[in-house]
User: Fold these one by one.
Assistant:
Number 1:
Amino acid sequence: MLGAAFTTNPNVAIFWISVALGGLAFSAPIGWSIPSLIAPKGSVGTVGSIMNCVSNVAGIAAPIVAGYVADATGSFALNFVIAGVILVLGILSYLFLLGRIEQIPTPDTVVETPPVEMGTRRAS
């Protein structure tokens, strides 16, 4: 992304944007496999949906912030720098913060609810 920020040649910008998006497309399946690896039994959908929700919030906020930045600077160059910094921070987070990927154990305490009887009539 940084290559796209500092060029006036559209072909060079498209090349660097393509490289960045190719890298994201290459790494996305790895990121999406993590919920199925770490979630306790029966909760893969919950963990995946939380991950999807956070991703969508970022996807909503990004164009809004990019619009304000482009309006304030009169250029999209700073947006490419911001995207590059976020990308590098994400790579570093995966490398140094993720740690060992292990399944979260299923909690031992399960709250059981009494069965509900349907269709019973009270004697009058």
Number 2:
Amino acid sequence: MKKNDFYIQIKQALELDEKTVNAKTTIHLSSLQTLAVIAYADEKFIKRIKIIDLREVKTISDLMTLIGSEKFTD
């Protein structure tokens, strides 16, 4: 998946207020956002993410690393 497409989709999935989302965007996941990320990763990338692993996610880049950096292109 192209990184820019991911930024747009994750912004929508998490209902982020930021005007622009990129790898450096800081995120603080609520309970509902955590579930949204888990569902999104499973649906789009066939990747199972554990809630405990999401506790370490602080940026969009961290989330991309958790999903698998090799799944993203420029």
